[in-house]
Design goal:
Helices cover about 70% and strands about 0% of the residues. The chain is an all-alpha fold. Helix 1 packs antiparallel against helix 2 and helix 11 packs antiparallel against helix 12. The relative contact order is 0.05. InterPro entries: ISR_Activator (IPR052748), Sel1-like (IPR006597), TPR-like_helical_dom_sf (IPR011990). This is Sel1 domain protein repeat-containing protein.
Length: about 290
């Protein structure tokens, strides 16, 4: 009813219902139309959400420049989502030229408002020196703040820091626990990382069967590294019954998705005749490709 009266915030909220299928069927075109109406009323969330529609082609054609313009308008209204999304555009050159300093500055502004995703993104900037100097302790603090807000990427980033001792002392149990929490929130890379923990006994009791199951789970969600890892399990009979043909097939699958290590592993299959017919020439060709 409020949307019928043209309230910007209600129009935006109804758009979210149609985008995500909450109490109504998913209808992306209707969602985009409602976001447009909210944006026309200068609603900052409507501007940001319409930007997302144009960035990802949800209910409208992809138009990155229009997405950037909408994010900018939302950011100008101090909208934390708009600031974070505009930061991403500048970080990855989506609709604008890459500008890492500007990206980091926008993430900082959104992070100051407590935006979980921006806290994580700013953490990545400090970890890798993107637009700011490398500062691992600051990165850890930001990942922790993102994790405290339940952000799965923050949980995962913090897990990596504890696993590898980046900005904090190594704490493998804490790393595994953080990967589990990130995985429970649907973070696919965390599934693969937790599988690694179980495969090698990192912070948990070694369990190769559990590792293989987790690799399969990550693979089913499209994680390329997990495909290669599951192939290794099949090749060596670790956590699954040994199946060299299945391993060779999985190496091929990972290779087709651009995994360099899988090219080398597939080459070894040809060299040793494991799961495929021995073919030294094909092996040499793949070894060359992997270099």
């Amino acid at each position: 009813q409020a949307a019928d009266k043209g309230h910007g915030s209600a129009l935006n909220n109804l758009g979210l219902c149609y985008e995500h299928g909450k109490s109504v069927g998913v209808d992306l075109k209707r969602a985009a139309s409602l976001y447009q109406q909210a944006a026309d009323k200068d609603n900052d969330y409507g501007l940001n959400n319409l930007g997302r529609c144009y960035e990802y082609g949800k209910g409208v054609g992809v138009d990155l420049k229009r997405a950037v313009s909408l994010y900018q308008q939302a950011a100008d209204k101090d909208n934390d989502y708009g600031l974070n999304n505009l930061g991403r555009c500048y970080e990855y050159g989506k609709g604008v030229g890459v500008d890492l300093k500007r990206a980091a500055s926008l993430y900082q502004q959104a992070a100051d408002k407590g935006h979980g995703s921006a806290l994580n993104n700013l953490g990545l900037c400090y970890e890798h020196g993107k637009g700011v100097g490398v500062d691992l302790k600051r990165a850890v603090s930001l990942y922790q703040q993102a994790a405290d807000k339940g952000n799965e990427y923050g949980l995962y980033g913090l897990g990596r820091c504890y696993e590898y001792g980046k900005g904090v002392g190594v704490d493998l149990k804490r790393a595994a626990s953080l990967y589990q929490q990130a995985m429970d929130k649907g973070m696919v890379s965390a599934i693969n990382s937790l599988a690694e923990c179980y495969r090698f006994g990192v912070g948990v009791i070694r369990n190769e069967v559990k590792a293989a199951q987790l690799y399969q789970q990550a693979m089913d969600k499209g994680h390329v590294e997990a495909i290669n890892n599951l192939a290794i399990c099949y090749k060596n009979g670790k956590g699954v019954s040994k199946d060299e043909a299945k391993a060779a097939q999985l190496f091929q699958q990972a290779m087709d998705k651009g995994h360099v290590g899988a090219i080398n592993n597939r080459a070894l299959c040809y060299k040793n005749g494991e799961g495929v017919e021995k073919d030294e020439a094909k092996a040499a060709q793949l070894f060359q490709q992997a270099m």
